[in-house]
Structures are given as structure tokens and as C-alpha cells.
Amino acid sequence: MLWLLLAFVGTSYAQTITIKEQQTNEPVELATINSGTKLFATTNSKGQADISAFKGVEKIEIRSLGHKTVIKSYSELEADGFTISLENANFSLDEVVISGSRWRQSSDDVPAKIISITAKEVALQNPQTAADLLGISGKVFIQKSQQGGGSPMIRGFSTSRLLYSVDGVRMNTAIFRSGNLQNVISLDPFAIENTEVVFGPGSVIYGSDAIGGVMSFRTLTPQFSLTDDPLITGKANFRYSSANNEKTGHMDVNVGFKKWSFLTSISSFDYDNLRQGSHGPEDYIRDYHVQRQDSMDVVITQEDRLLQIPTAYSQINMMQKFRFQPNEKWDFQYGFHYSETSDYGRYDRHQRVKNGTARYAEWNYGPQIWMMNNLSIGYSESNSLFDQMNIRLAHQYFEESRMDRSLNKSDRSINDEEVHAYSINTDFIKATGERNTVFYGLEYVLDDVKSAGKITDITTGITEAGPSRYPNSTWQSLAAYVTDEFKVNDRFTVSGGARYNQILLDSEFDTTFYPFPFTEASLSNGALTGSLGGVYRPTDTWVLSANLGTAFRAPNVDDVGKVFDSAPGQVVVPNPDLKPEYAYNADLGAAKVFGDVVKIDVTGYYTQLKNSLLRRDFKLNGQDSILYQGEISKVQAIQNSAEANIYGVQFGLEIKLSRGFGFSTDFNFQKGKEELENGEKSPVRHSAPFFGISRLNYKTQKLSMEVNFAFQGKRDFDDMPDGEKSKKELYALDENGNIYSPSWYTLNFKGLYKVSDTFDVSGGIDNLTDQRYRPYASGVSGAGRNFVMALTAHF
Hints:
By secondary structure, this protein is mainly beta. The chain has two domains: 14-89, Sandwich (Immunoglobulin-like); 219-355 and 364-794, TonB-dependent receptor, beta-barrel domain (Maltoporin, Chain A, Beta Barrel). Helix content is 5%, strand content 55%. The strands form ten sheets. The protein has a 22-stranded antiparallel β-barrel. Strands 10-16-17-14-15 form a five-stranded mixed β-sheet. A four-stranded antiparallel β-sheet has the order 3-2-5-6. It starts with a helix and ends with a strand. The model is unreliable at 1-12 (pLDDT under 50).
């Protein structure tokens, strides 16, 4: 009976609109067509959409990033033959965004700062990973401990204080750690339709962890055919990069019918060891690596001293989506995602020394696996409760492992972690008047964490049980939220919201290897967060915004229960007596366009973090040191013991020059201090130095070129976080032998040429001057001079 209902189709005719770009006459894909909260459509790869449901509507908005917004009635579109040409816009102060509320809305109505990274930008810049994709924005700082990684830093926050969302589903799990994370590399840049970054707290919509910001990734959406013939589209890519001998291939295919559509995507990435640049600090050069020869670990001096060994790894990504739209009310989408890496070396640990030689013979991450099943059910029909409803049911599986062995030791320690994450989100939107819109929803998340340890004697092959990194645990989140958006007038919008979250954590500790004074722990914490903000447009060329918000992060399994070595001679142990940390944030932003030639965008912010979860000295059974992996190590634990204050400014400038030329620049400045155990202040660990990107670009109908200048400011020893000062393997040394992070720059050339409607050629030269540089807090240097060549075929 259900499928008979879903298969029912009304007798209304289909009316197709075609949207093209005025300058090139090419179809505009993913243009949005909407009328309030009740009607919405998106153009396919042919620039077409079915707007039958809009018949009789007096105000229809047509938007596309980089084009001027068109507002017309249905009758006016009919008079135009349902064909619209969008005029290019030098600048845009309003665009359609999703991440602010999980519903499509104009950025005019969102007080938070949000940026979009489009597929066109990705095609020109050719980022190798999803972490690099975020970095091309010039507003997100990326830290790397190894080539197979990338940990974003946003407004002084990183790792488990930032939230990742994939197709509206929370990616963060109960073992997302406060140390650097590389989970974002599980996403495939080729399969991402659009990326949005929300700066500042997002806990009202997204819950725990959304303190510094939200990174929302929307993957490719299956498209329907609007004719009797199937719509078959796709692309194939091949890319080569010289600095790491990259060999990447990708293909995606969409097959669409009127009610059904299918999309398949697959990518293969292969990276050799990464070569760093020739000109820079000698401290970054480690011209040796360890090999196993004749049952012995041998330290090998490299012929090419600039190669960073071991940093090589490979990865495969697959995605399969199905979409069924029986009528204009229902939209069913199912997505399957799978990503798996090879083993890869954690390069920062390979740089550690002991007794004048390499400390480790092995320190590798095992295969990182991410899988997601996601069912989204959308329903659009106005009633007393909602205009639109969306239900998301998701299951995610995460697998990761760590393997290390000291030089000339036979015991290899292995930790394996598995997380099954189940979630359900129900989101609603309701217009309660001409000027008022309410967003509300419910969420439930369950993470089931399994962790195991073992020790293998590589000489005998005998494996025994060993200490696990985490206790076996369950982590649950139950939440309800509501946000109200009120248009005071056509120039001024006010919005406010609140969310209540209850977090439950249950852990079972194994005392076989460590004498913990407890065998289980249970936490139950509630959190109420809120936001209040407004957007004011005094003219069409001015936008002013202000936003106040709170956010929280509940202790997770990583905070409460992990055991690991944070640094030589230090071991972190469990602490089940933790409470949530809270953030209080204020934003003030302004954007102005001058004569359709210059655009300036400035945002200032201040965040206070209370009950901050930090690693500090601790005692286990009254002892301040224990034996860990054969070494007496100082005991530390995560504790609620600090307050942090962070402030900063984000500045953007765009200038449209004549004859297709343009210039833009982004600067990011932030400072932060947190309390130490002795009451003194230390710079916040994840507050990046001054950084940004400046670009000179040129664009014609078929050719896009760009020369950009990426940079980071210097951070002296006195400005380094207290916890970083012992990590000599990561940094350069000053004249006093103290660590510091030198300033650096890279000069890069990018280009893309449309050979025909079928083929694109893109590529360029990264780090033209072959600088040897290392982003702040990173354990691996960036690529030296790097030649990139990519070929894309569209069909």
C-alpha cells in the first residue's frame, strides 16, 4: 500500500524552465528557484528545472552564486518563454546557504559568517584532499602531522571543538580527540557539490562540539530527467602531481529518469613520499629513515635528503546514491559512502629521537575506514505544523588503528578502534506569517565504541592481548531545538534560537594492565545553548551583521577514558569526573561594495571558553608517574580546569579590474590566552599565527588563470603555547636553541582551459620558488615545487 501511494502521480503537467549564463549562453547548474519556504527547485546539469508547482506565484527568486538575483512572477517567466539569462555579478552580498539552519535560506537572513567553496573553485585549485579543499578558502588554517591528514583550525579552535557535517549528518564521533584529527580526508573532493563553513558557534543547530565553527559538505545530488529520454551525465578525471608522484583517477555517472535517478562515484588516490622545498630551515630536514633488514632495524641515510619518509599512502572512495521523487511533495534519497586508506606513517612521531638516534622503527596509522548509510526523506506541503519536513536516518562506521614499535625492539603495540554511530534528525520549517519563519527539530545520536589492544612479537609472530586506548563505551545525545527568523522589514532581519541537549556516557574500564581505581563510569550532562543576531542592509551595497551565541562540548570517550603517550615521558590516563565546557561568543561584521568594483568584508569576534577541557598533571592511585611502554612517565589527564579567551579579525578584499582581471586577498588575525595550572597565561594551542591568501586572477569564456600568494606569519618562542615548547621535532630552532614557527610564503600558479564542451585541462605550479615551509603546529613540511596536470572529460 505504501509503495502504491508513493508511486501515485498527479495529472498536473510539467513546466520546464531553462536558465543560462548571459555571457556564455551555457546552462547554469544548481541555480536555486524558490518562493518562500513552500516551493523550491534546483536546475540540473542542463540548467533546467520543473516549476509546475510555482504556477500562479507572484514572487519567484532565481539565484546562482556569481550571478545577479532575478525576481519574477510565474506569468512573467511564462511571457519570457520560461528561459532566463542570468547576468554575471562582480560581487554577491546574498547567496543561498544551507549550513546555517539545514534549510536553504538567503545569507541576507543569517547573522553568522558563512563562506561557500564551489565545485568550480575546486576544479581550478586541484586540492588533493578535503582538508586541502578547506584550505583554498584562505580562511581556514590546516595543520598536518603527516601527508595523510589535515586538521582544520577555525578561530582558535580545532579537532573536537569543530563540527563536520556530511549531507546534513553529524560526522563527529565519541572518539574525536582534542589532538589533531585527520578524519576529514575520508571525504572525496571530486564528489563534493558544495562546501560551506560557518564561523563561530553552531550548537543550536548542530549540538555538542560546534564551538569554533561548522564545516558542512554537500555531496553530489542525483538529478532527474525532465523529458522522456534519460539524463546521462558525468565526468572522468585524471591528475598527476610531481612533488609526491600523485596518480589520481575519478569517475562519476548520473542516470536520471523522471522519478528515479542514480549516481555512482569512485576515486582512487595514490601518493608517494612527499618532497619538501630546497630553501628554508635546516631543522625541517630529516635525511634518514628506518628499514628492517635481516631481522634488524637499520637507520638509512637518504640520497634525497628532502624526501619525507615515510609519508606515502593511498586511498579509495566510493559513493552510490539513489533518489525517488514520486510527486512534487515527496523526495526520497539514499546515499552509501565508503572510504579506506592504506597504512600511513605518522611523520611527526618518526622525527622523535632517543639516545641520539631514531626513537621509533614504526609509527603508523592503520587503514582509516569510514562508511555511511544515509536515508533522507523530504516532504513539502503546508499544514498547521510545517511547510517542509526532512527526516535523516544514518548509520556510520569508523575504523582506525595505531601501530608503533621502538627501534630494535621486537614488540609492536597495536590499538584498534571501531565506532558504530546511529543518528536520526527531524527538521521542520514553518512560515507563520509573511515575515516570520520558524525552524525546529529533534535529534538522537548513539555512538557505540569498541577498543582493543594487542602486542605482537615480530620475531616469533606471537600476539598477546595488550592495553586498549579507550574503554568500551556508549555515548548518547538527545536534543530539541527551535530558531525563529523575523523580517522586521525588507532591510532588517532578526533571528534567535535555543537548544537543549542531554548527553549520556557509559564506559567500562579494563584494569588488567593499569590499576585504575574504577571499573566503570557514567556521565549525564545537560546543556542549554542559545543565539541571537541580526542582519541589516541599509542599501543594496551594504550589509551589517551582529551575532551573540553560546556553544558547548560535552566530554566524550576520548576525554574521559583514553590512555596514550602525549609526549616522551608523559602518559594521559582516564578521568571520569568531567563536565561540559561552554563558549560565549560575539560577532560583528560588515560588508560593502563600492561602485561594483571593490568589495570589503570585515568580521571581528570574541569568544570566551569556560570549564575548558585541557590536559594537565594528574595522579593515579596517588602516584604522579607510572610505567608506560617500558618507560617511567609523568601522569596527566583531561580536566575541567581552565578559561580561555580568543579574539580576532577576518578581513577580505576583492577588486574587479578591467579586461577579465581581478584581485582578492584574505587576512586572518587571532589571539588567544588560556589559564595554566599555576595560574599563569599561555597562548591557546590551536590559535594559528596571522595567515591568508592573495590572488590575482584572469578569466575569459574558456580560460581561467590565477597567481596566488599564500602566507603565514612568524610565531616566536615566547608566543608559543606552553604545551608546544617541548616538541622540538615540529619546529625550527632560534639562535638560543628555542623552538619557533618561522614565517613563510608560497607563490602558486593555477590554470584551467576548456578545450571543448567535453574536455578541460587544468593544473599549474605550486610553490614556484621551492620554499621549505611548515605550517604552524605541523609535523610535516609542505610540498616543494610541484607541477600539477589534470584532464577532465564531461559527458
